[in-house]
Specification:
It is a single chain. By secondary structure, the chain is of the alpha/beta class. The chain has helices spanning 9-17, 71-74, 81-86, 114-118, 137-146, 157-165, 211-218, 224-244, 260-274, 302-326, 392-403; strands at 59-65, 75-76, 105-106, 122-129, 173-176, 192-194, 280-285, 329-334, 355-361, 369-370, 390-391. It has a single domain (50-202, 251-411), classed as Alkaline Phosphatase, subunit A (3-Layer(aba) Sandwich), CATH 3.40.720. The longest helix is centred in the C-terminal third of the chain and has 25 residues, at 302-326.
Protein backbone atom coordinates (compact mmCIF):
# COMPACT_ATOMS: atom_id res chain seq x y z
CA UNK A 1 0.00 0.00 0.00
CA UNK A 2 1.27 3.46 -0.71
CA UNK A 3 1.62 5.90 2.12
CA UNK A 4 0.51 9.38 1.12
CA UNK A 5 -1.21 9.87 -2.19
CA UNK A 6 -2.70 13.30 -2.47
CA UNK A 7 -2.69 16.42 -4.51
CA UNK A 8 0.04 18.43 -2.80
CA UNK A 9 3.60 18.31 -4.08
CA UNK A 10 4.70 19.02 -0.52
CA UNK A 11 2.76 16.02 0.77
CA UNK A 12 4.23 13.76 -1.91
CA UNK A 13 7.74 14.75 -0.88
CA UNK A 14 6.88 14.28 2.78
CA UNK A 15 5.69 10.73 2.26
CA UNK A 16 9.10 9.65 1.12
CA UNK A 17 11.05 11.59 3.73
CA UNK A 18 9.04 10.55 6.74
CA UNK A 19 9.65 6.83 6.42
CA UNK A 20 12.50 4.80 7.86
CA UNK A 21 14.08 1.42 7.25
CA UNK A 22 12.11 -1.66 8.17
CA UNK A 23 12.47 -3.49 11.47
CA UNK A 24 14.49 -1.03 13.52
CA UNK A 25 17.41 -2.82 15.10
CA UNK A 26 15.87 -6.26 14.87
CA UNK A 27 15.76 -7.09 11.15
CA UNK A 28 17.20 -5.84 7.90
CA UNK A 29 15.57 -5.62 4.50
CA UNK A 30 16.73 -5.59 0.92
CA UNK A 31 16.27 -2.78 -1.53
CA UNK A 32 12.78 -4.02 -2.32
CA UNK A 33 11.79 -3.85 1.34
CA UNK A 34 10.90 -7.53 1.31
CA UNK A 35 11.62 -10.08 3.98
CA UNK A 36 9.55 -13.04 3.46
CA UNK A 37 7.58 -15.99 4.43
CA UNK A 38 10.12 -18.73 4.09
CA UNK A 39 9.17 -21.46 1.64
CA UNK A 40 12.41 -23.36 1.97
CA UNK A 41 13.62 -26.51 3.67
CA UNK A 42 12.90 -26.47 7.39
CA UNK A 43 9.77 -24.33 7.23
CA UNK A 44 8.25 -24.22 10.70
CA UNK A 45 4.80 -25.73 11.16
CA UNK A 46 4.19 -23.64 14.24
CA UNK A 47 4.45 -19.93 14.87
CA UNK A 48 7.88 -18.78 15.94
CA UNK A 49 6.55 -16.02 18.17
CA UNK A 50 4.00 -15.92 20.93
CA UNK A 51 2.39 -13.08 22.77
CA UNK A 52 4.58 -11.18 25.20
CA UNK A 53 3.74 -12.86 28.53
CA UNK A 54 3.50 -9.58 30.41
CA UNK A 55 1.07 -8.02 27.94
CA UNK A 56 -2.64 -8.63 28.38
CA UNK A 57 -4.03 -5.59 26.61
CA UNK A 58 -5.84 -4.91 23.35
CA UNK A 59 -4.23 -5.13 19.96
CA UNK A 60 -4.01 -1.46 18.97
CA UNK A 61 -4.61 -0.81 15.27
CA UNK A 62 -3.65 2.67 14.08
CA UNK A 63 -5.21 3.61 10.76
CA UNK A 64 -3.45 6.70 9.40
CA UNK A 65 -5.67 8.71 7.04
CA UNK A 66 -2.86 10.52 5.33
CA UNK A 67 -3.23 13.71 3.36
CA UNK A 68 -5.51 15.59 5.77
CA UNK A 69 -8.82 13.87 6.52
CA UNK A 70 -11.90 16.12 6.35
CA UNK A 71 -13.64 15.26 9.61
CA UNK A 72 -16.28 17.87 8.86
CA UNK A 73 -17.43 15.80 5.88
CA UNK A 74 -17.34 12.45 7.68
CA UNK A 75 -18.90 13.49 11.01
CA UNK A 76 -21.06 16.41 9.99
CA UNK A 77 -21.99 19.15 12.52
CA UNK A 78 -25.39 19.78 10.93
CA UNK A 79 -26.64 21.46 14.12
CA UNK A 80 -24.13 24.30 13.69
CA UNK A 81 -25.67 26.73 11.17
CA UNK A 82 -22.24 28.05 10.24
CA UNK A 83 -21.44 24.68 8.64
CA UNK A 84 -23.86 25.14 5.74
CA UNK A 85 -22.96 28.81 5.41
CA UNK A 86 -19.31 27.86 4.97
CA UNK A 87 -20.01 24.93 2.65
CA UNK A 88 -22.92 25.86 0.39
CA UNK A 89 -21.85 23.41 -2.33
CA UNK A 90 -20.15 20.50 -0.58
CA UNK A 91 -22.00 20.53 2.74
CA UNK A 92 -23.82 17.23 3.37
CA UNK A 93 -27.59 17.87 3.61
CA UNK A 94 -29.11 16.97 6.96
CA UNK A 95 -31.68 14.73 5.28
CA UNK A 96 -28.91 12.46 3.98
CA UNK A 97 -27.08 12.02 7.28
CA UNK A 98 -27.03 8.75 9.19
CA UNK A 99 -27.46 8.23 12.94
CA UNK A 100 -28.00 11.90 13.50
CA UNK A 101 -28.52 13.62 16.83
CA UNK A 102 -29.15 17.30 17.51
CA UNK A 103 -25.63 18.26 16.42
CA UNK A 104 -23.89 15.51 14.42
CA UNK A 105 -24.61 12.93 11.76
CA UNK A 106 -22.54 10.53 9.68
CA UNK A 107 -21.86 10.91 5.98
CA UNK A 108 -24.14 8.56 3.98
CA UNK A 109 -21.13 6.76 2.49
CA UNK A 110 -20.41 5.40 5.97
CA UNK A 111 -23.56 3.26 5.81
CA UNK A 112 -21.60 -0.05 6.10
CA UNK A 113 -20.53 1.12 9.58
CA UNK A 114 -24.02 1.97 10.76
CA UNK A 115 -24.59 -1.41 12.51
CA UNK A 116 -21.35 -0.92 14.45
CA UNK A 117 -22.37 2.61 15.41
CA UNK A 118 -25.81 1.53 16.50
CA UNK A 119 -24.35 -1.52 18.26
CA UNK A 120 -22.09 0.69 20.36
CA UNK A 121 -18.78 -0.45 18.87
CA UNK A 122 -17.95 2.64 16.81
CA UNK A 123 -17.56 6.19 18.09
CA UNK A 124 -16.08 9.52 17.03
CA UNK A 125 -14.21 12.26 18.84
CA UNK A 126 -14.49 15.67 17.19
CA UNK A 127 -12.38 18.81 17.32
CA UNK A 128 -9.12 16.97 18.01
CA UNK A 129 -5.75 18.26 16.94
CA UNK A 130 -2.10 18.78 17.64
CA UNK A 131 -0.78 21.27 20.21
CA UNK A 132 1.33 23.14 17.64
CA UNK A 133 -0.76 23.18 14.44
CA UNK A 134 0.84 23.49 11.05
CA UNK A 135 -0.54 23.24 7.53
CA UNK A 136 2.59 21.49 6.27
CA UNK A 137 2.01 17.79 5.57
CA UNK A 138 5.65 17.00 6.28
CA UNK A 139 5.87 18.85 9.59
CA UNK A 140 2.43 17.74 10.76
CA UNK A 141 3.06 14.06 10.01
CA UNK A 142 6.42 14.16 11.75
CA UNK A 143 4.96 15.74 14.88
CA UNK A 144 1.87 13.51 14.89
CA UNK A 145 3.98 10.36 14.87
CA UNK A 146 6.69 11.65 17.21
CA UNK A 147 3.91 12.90 19.53
CA UNK A 148 6.24 14.64 21.96
CA UNK A 149 5.75 18.34 21.25
CA UNK A 150 8.06 20.65 23.16
CA UNK A 151 10.62 17.93 23.91
CA UNK A 152 13.80 16.65 22.30
CA UNK A 153 12.46 13.08 22.09
CA UNK A 154 13.04 11.64 18.64
CA UNK A 155 11.45 8.19 18.90
CA UNK A 156 7.94 7.47 17.68
CA UNK A 157 5.04 7.13 20.10
CA UNK A 158 4.26 3.53 19.14
CA UNK A 159 7.88 2.58 19.79
CA UNK A 160 7.65 4.17 23.25
CA UNK A 161 4.35 2.37 23.90
CA UNK A 162 5.95 -0.96 23.06
CA UNK A 163 8.87 -0.17 25.32
CA UNK A 164 6.52 0.54 28.23
CA UNK A 165 4.41 -2.57 27.65
CA UNK A 166 7.42 -4.86 27.33
CA UNK A 167 7.24 -6.04 23.74
CA UNK A 168 10.27 -7.92 22.46
CA UNK A 169 9.59 -9.65 19.12
CA UNK A 170 9.35 -8.25 15.57
CA UNK A 171 5.73 -9.32 15.11
CA UNK A 172 4.65 -7.27 18.12
CA UNK A 173 4.42 -4.17 15.91
CA UNK A 174 3.69 -4.52 12.22
CA UNK A 175 3.12 -1.92 9.54
CA UNK A 176 0.86 -3.77 7.12
CA UNK A 177 0.56 -2.83 3.48
CA UNK A 178 3.93 -1.10 3.21
CA UNK A 179 7.50 -2.32 3.31
CA UNK A 180 8.58 0.49 5.59
CA UNK A 181 7.34 1.07 9.13
CA UNK A 182 5.91 4.51 9.98
CA UNK A 183 7.71 7.21 11.92
CA UNK A 184 5.52 6.33 14.92
CA UNK A 185 7.48 3.05 15.21
CA UNK A 186 10.92 4.70 15.00
CA UNK A 187 13.18 3.68 17.85
CA UNK A 188 14.96 0.77 19.48
CA UNK A 189 12.03 -1.62 19.92
CA UNK A 190 11.75 -4.25 17.14
CA UNK A 191 9.02 -3.83 14.53
CA UNK A 192 8.21 -5.12 11.09
CA UNK A 193 7.00 -3.75 7.77
CA UNK A 194 5.38 -6.04 5.23
CA UNK A 195 3.31 -5.40 2.15
CA UNK A 196 1.35 -8.59 2.67
CA UNK A 197 1.69 -11.90 4.43
CA UNK A 198 1.52 -13.85 1.18
CA UNK A 199 4.26 -11.79 -0.49
CA UNK A 200 6.56 -11.62 2.52
CA UNK A 201 9.66 -13.15 0.90
CA UNK A 202 13.39 -12.88 1.29
CA UNK A 203 14.72 -11.26 -1.86
CA UNK A 204 16.48 -13.87 -3.98
CA UNK A 205 15.33 -16.89 -1.96
CA UNK A 206 14.80 -20.07 -3.99
CA UNK A 207 15.50 -23.78 -4.06
CA UNK A 208 18.84 -23.14 -5.76
CA UNK A 209 19.56 -20.09 -3.61
CA UNK A 210 18.81 -21.01 0.02
CA UNK A 211 19.62 -17.55 1.30
CA UNK A 212 17.81 -17.88 4.62
CA UNK A 213 19.72 -21.04 5.50
CA UNK A 214 22.94 -19.38 4.40
CA UNK A 215 22.29 -16.40 6.66
CA UNK A 216 21.58 -18.68 9.60
CA UNK A 217 24.81 -20.57 9.00
CA UNK A 218 26.77 -17.37 8.55
CA UNK A 219 25.77 -16.12 12.00
CA UNK A 220 26.05 -19.45 13.77
CA UNK A 221 28.39 -19.18 16.74
CA UNK A 222 28.94 -15.42 16.51
CA UNK A 223 28.44 -13.10 19.51
CA UNK A 224 24.82 -12.61 20.58
CA UNK A 225 24.78 -8.95 19.58
CA UNK A 226 25.38 -10.02 15.99
CA UNK A 227 23.40 -13.25 16.00
CA UNK A 228 20.18 -11.83 17.46
CA UNK A 229 19.11 -9.81 14.39
CA UNK A 230 19.73 -12.75 12.07
CA UNK A 231 17.84 -15.10 14.35
CA UNK A 232 14.94 -12.66 14.58
CA UNK A 233 14.87 -12.44 10.79
CA UNK A 234 14.76 -16.21 10.51
CA UNK A 235 12.01 -16.46 13.08
CA UNK A 236 9.99 -13.81 11.23
CA UNK A 237 10.35 -15.76 8.01
CA UNK A 238 9.23 -19.00 9.62
CA UNK A 239 6.29 -17.30 11.33
CA UNK A 240 5.05 -15.78 8.08
CA UNK A 241 5.57 -19.11 6.37
CA UNK A 242 3.45 -20.86 8.96
CA UNK A 243 0.67 -18.33 8.46
CA UNK A 244 0.85 -18.72 4.72
CA UNK A 245 0.83 -22.52 4.87
CA UNK A 246 -2.92 -22.42 5.43
CA UNK A 247 -5.06 -20.37 3.05
CA UNK A 248 -6.88 -17.63 4.90
CA UNK A 249 -10.66 -17.45 4.71
CA UNK A 250 -12.35 -14.50 6.45
CA UNK A 251 -14.92 -15.60 9.01
CA UNK A 252 -18.59 -14.80 9.51
CA UNK A 253 -19.18 -14.06 5.85
CA UNK A 254 -16.85 -11.06 5.87
CA UNK A 255 -16.07 -9.70 2.41
CA UNK A 256 -13.13 -7.33 2.22
CA UNK A 257 -13.03 -4.90 -0.70
CA UNK A 258 -10.30 -5.79 -3.20
CA UNK A 259 -8.37 -2.61 -2.41
CA UNK A 260 -5.03 -1.95 -0.71
CA UNK A 261 -6.87 -0.95 2.46
CA UNK A 262 -9.09 -4.02 2.39
CA UNK A 263 -6.11 -6.26 1.81
CA UNK A 264 -4.13 -4.67 4.63
CA UNK A 265 -6.92 -4.96 7.19
CA UNK A 266 -7.48 -8.55 6.09
CA UNK A 267 -3.85 -9.28 6.91
CA UNK A 268 -4.14 -7.49 10.26
CA UNK A 269 -7.06 -9.78 11.13
CA UNK A 270 -4.99 -12.74 9.98
CA UNK A 271 -2.12 -11.73 12.27
CA UNK A 272 -4.48 -11.23 15.21
CA UNK A 273 -6.04 -14.65 14.76
CA UNK A 274 -2.65 -16.24 14.10
CA UNK A 275 -1.39 -15.58 17.61
CA UNK A 276 1.92 -14.11 16.51
CA UNK A 277 2.16 -11.80 19.52
CA UNK A 278 0.77 -8.74 17.72
CA UNK A 279 0.38 -5.75 20.04
CA UNK A 280 0.15 -2.86 17.57
CA UNK A 281 -0.49 -2.63 13.83
CA UNK A 282 -0.19 0.35 11.54
CA UNK A 283 -2.09 0.76 8.27
CA UNK A 284 -2.03 3.73 5.90
CA UNK A 285 -4.89 4.97 3.76
CA UNK A 286 -4.08 8.10 1.78
CA UNK A 287 -5.55 10.40 -0.89
CA UNK A 288 -7.51 12.62 1.50
CA UNK A 289 -5.97 15.88 0.28
CA UNK A 290 -9.03 17.03 -1.63
CA UNK A 291 -8.27 20.61 -2.61
CA UNK A 292 -10.67 20.31 -5.52
CA UNK A 293 -13.58 18.20 -6.61
CA UNK A 294 -14.50 16.85 -3.19
CA UNK A 295 -17.98 16.42 -4.52
CA UNK A 296 -21.48 16.18 -3.17
CA UNK A 297 -22.71 13.35 -0.96
CA UNK A 298 -23.73 10.97 -3.73
CA UNK A 299 -22.14 7.85 -5.17
CA UNK A 300 -19.47 8.55 -7.76
CA UNK A 301 -18.20 11.69 -6.06
CA UNK A 302 -14.66 11.75 -4.73
CA UNK A 303 -15.27 12.05 -0.98
CA UNK A 304 -18.23 9.69 -1.13
CA UNK A 305 -16.23 6.96 -2.84
CA UNK A 306 -13.25 7.32 -0.52
CA UNK A 307 -15.39 7.21 2.62
CA UNK A 308 -17.26 4.24 1.15
CA UNK A 309 -13.98 2.36 0.65
CA UNK A 310 -12.99 3.14 4.23
CA UNK A 311 -16.34 2.02 5.61
CA UNK A 312 -16.49 -1.25 3.66
CA UNK A 313 -12.98 -2.23 4.76
CA UNK A 314 -13.63 -1.42 8.43
CA UNK A 315 -16.96 -3.24 8.40
CA UNK A 316 -15.33 -6.34 6.90
CA UNK A 317 -12.56 -6.21 9.50
CA UNK A 318 -15.07 -6.11 12.36
CA UNK A 319 -17.19 -8.88 10.82
CA UNK A 320 -14.15 -11.08 10.26
CA UNK A 321 -13.01 -10.77 13.87
CA UNK A 322 -16.50 -11.25 15.24
CA UNK A 323 -17.59 -10.05 18.69
CA UNK A 324 -15.11 -12.29 20.51
CA UNK A 325 -12.15 -11.19 18.40
CA UNK A 326 -13.15 -7.53 18.41
CA UNK A 327 -13.33 -7.63 22.20
CA UNK A 328 -9.54 -7.56 22.33
CA UNK A 329 -8.97 -4.97 19.59
CA UNK A 330 -9.15 -1.19 19.46
CA UNK A 331 -8.75 0.55 16.11
CA UNK A 332 -8.40 4.32 15.90
CA UNK A 333 -7.89 6.74 13.02
CA UNK A 334 -5.39 9.57 12.88
CA UNK A 335 -4.67 12.26 10.31
CA UNK A 336 -2.01 14.96 10.32
CA UNK A 337 -4.60 17.74 10.25
CA UNK A 338 -8.18 18.49 9.29
CA UNK A 339 -9.49 20.80 6.59
CA UNK A 340 -10.53 24.44 6.55
CA UNK A 341 -14.15 25.12 7.36
CA UNK A 342 -14.81 27.26 4.30
CA UNK A 343 -14.97 25.45 0.96
CA UNK A 344 -12.67 26.89 -1.67
CA UNK A 345 -13.38 28.01 -5.20
CA UNK A 346 -12.62 24.57 -6.58
CA UNK A 347 -15.32 22.91 -4.47
CA UNK A 348 -12.73 21.37 -2.21
CA UNK A 349 -11.11 22.23 1.09
CA UNK A 350 -7.62 23.38 1.98
CA UNK A 351 -5.36 22.41 4.87
CA UNK A 352 -6.86 23.14 8.27
CA UNK A 353 -6.55 22.15 11.90
CA UNK A 354 -9.28 20.54 14.04
CA UNK A 355 -10.43 17.11 12.94
CA UNK A 356 -12.39 13.98 13.86
CA UNK A 357 -11.08 10.60 15.04
CA UNK A 358 -12.95 7.32 14.70
CA UNK A 359 -12.62 4.52 17.26
CA UNK A 360 -13.75 0.94 16.67
CA UNK A 361 -13.51 -1.98 19.06
CA UNK A 362 -15.09 -4.24 21.62
CA UNK A 363 -14.25 -1.85 24.42
CA UNK A 364 -15.49 1.27 22.63
CA UNK A 365 -18.58 2.98 24.04
CA UNK A 366 -19.93 3.86 20.66
CA UNK A 367 -22.92 5.38 18.98
CA UNK A 368 -22.01 8.93 19.88
CA UNK A 369 -19.63 11.82 19.18
CA UNK A 370 -17.33 12.84 22.02
CA UNK A 371 -15.37 16.03 22.55
CA UNK A 372 -15.97 19.69 23.25
CA UNK A 373 -17.53 21.38 20.24
CA UNK A 374 -16.11 24.91 19.81
CA UNK A 375 -18.48 26.06 17.07
CA UNK A 376 -17.90 27.09 13.48
CA UNK A 377 -18.95 30.73 13.60
CA UNK A 378 -16.04 32.99 12.58
CA UNK A 379 -15.27 34.21 16.14
CA UNK A 380 -14.71 30.60 17.24
CA UNK A 381 -12.34 29.63 14.44
CA UNK A 382 -8.55 29.61 14.57
CA UNK A 383 -7.31 31.36 11.43
CA UNK A 384 -10.32 30.00 9.55
CA UNK A 385 -9.97 26.49 10.95
CA UNK A 386 -11.96 24.37 13.37
CA UNK A 387 -10.39 24.86 16.78
CA UNK A 388 -8.99 21.78 18.47
CA UNK A 389 -10.44 21.40 21.95
CA UNK A 390 -8.85 17.98 22.56
CA UNK A 391 -5.25 16.89 22.11
CA UNK A 392 -5.29 13.75 19.95
CA UNK A 393 -2.72 12.21 22.32
CA UNK A 394 -5.19 12.46 25.18
CA UNK A 395 -7.68 10.32 23.24
CA UNK A 396 -5.00 7.74 22.48
CA UNK A 397 -3.92 8.01 26.10
CA UNK A 398 -7.36 6.98 27.34
CA UNK A 399 -7.18 3.93 25.08
CA UNK A 400 -3.65 3.06 26.23
CA UNK A 401 -4.50 3.32 29.91
CA UNK A 402 -7.87 1.57 29.82
CA UNK A 403 -7.39 -0.95 27.05
CA UNK A 404 -3.65 -1.56 26.77
CA UNK A 405 -2.69 -1.58 30.43
CA UNK A 406 -0.31 1.38 30.24
CA UNK A 407 0.41 2.75 33.71
CA UNK A 408 3.18 5.21 32.75
CA UNK A 409 1.51 7.33 30.08
CA UNK A 410 3.98 10.16 30.63
CA UNK A 411 6.74 8.01 29.15
CA UNK A 412 4.76 7.80 25.93
CA UNK A 413 3.17 11.25 25.80
CA UNK A 414 5.17 13.62 28.04
CA UNK A 415 2.97 16.02 29.95
CA UNK A 416 -0.30 14.62 28.55
CA UNK A 417 -3.10 13.26 30.73
CA UNK A 418 -5.55 10.72 29.30
CA UNK A 419 -8.92 12.04 28.18
CA UNK A 420 -11.80 11.47 30.56
CA UNK A 421 -14.57 11.19 27.98
CA UNK A 422 -15.23 7.53 28.69
CA UNK A 423 -14.93 6.67 25.02
CA UNK A 424 -13.65 3.23 26.02
CA UNK A 425 -14.34 0.98 28.98
CA UNK A 426 -11.58 -0.31 31.21
CA UNK A 427 -10.42 -3.77 30.26
CA UNK A 428 -11.25 -6.37 32.88
Amino acid sequence: MTTDVCGCDENTRASGMSRRGVLGRALTAGATGALAGLASEGLATRLAFAATPAYAGDVLVVLSLRGGFDGLSAVVPHGDPAYYQARPTIGVPKAQLLAGDSMFGLHPALAPLLPLWQGGRLAAVHAVGQPNPTRSHFAAMEEMERAAAGTSIRTGWLDRMLGVTGGSNPFQAVAVGASMAPRAMAGPVPDLGLRSIDSFALAGEGTKRPMAATIRALYDGVPEALAAPARAAGDALRTAGALRATAYAPANGASYPATPLGNALRDVARLIKGGVGLMAAGVDFGDWDMHEGLGTAVAGQRMYEHLSELAKALAAFATDLGPAGLAGVTLLTLSEFGRRVQENGNRGTDHGHGNAMLLLGGGVKGGTVYGGWPGLAPPHLVAGDLAATTDYRAVIGEVLVKRCGVSRLGEIFPGVAPASYGVVTARA
